[in-house]
Specification:
The protein has helices at about 1-25, 85-90; strands at about 35, 40-50, 55-70, 75, 80-85, 90-95, 100-105, 120-125, 125. Helix content is about 20%, strand content about 45%. It is of the alpha+beta class. Strands 2, 3, 4, 5 and 9 form a 5-stranded antiparallel β-sheet that branches. The protein has a 4-stranded antiparallel β-sheet with strand order 1-6-7-8, with no helix packed on it.
Amino acid sequence: MIVGFLLVAGAVAIGVVIAVERTGASKNAPLTATTTQVEYTSYDPETRSSSSGVGRSTIEGANVRYRYRAEGRWFETQDPIWKPSARLADRAVCFDPDDPAAHTLRGNTDTPCGEGNHGAVRRAKAVTP
């Protein structure tokens, strides 16, 4: 019974390691390179609202898909990401120079890439323009 438990626990641990490796979802990925060659491929406006102790507020924004150029190649996102309207004009991507598909879209082009990564690390697919 103990051997069976250890085998199951080992299989689960290996599965978790493989899943994390495949998604590249580490907040600490070395996204030290940047590009401002970013184009929105789809743009769907959406207003979001939230409640707080002070009241209710609404924020205009859009769900966007985008592509970016890194290391001489184009990469495109598959899933949309919501961005507030105030952040849509500033377009930059932080990416890992060793794995340019690992990236994050950031709104503030004045903030350097590096630690903190300005958001969750996402994966994109290499595409031909």
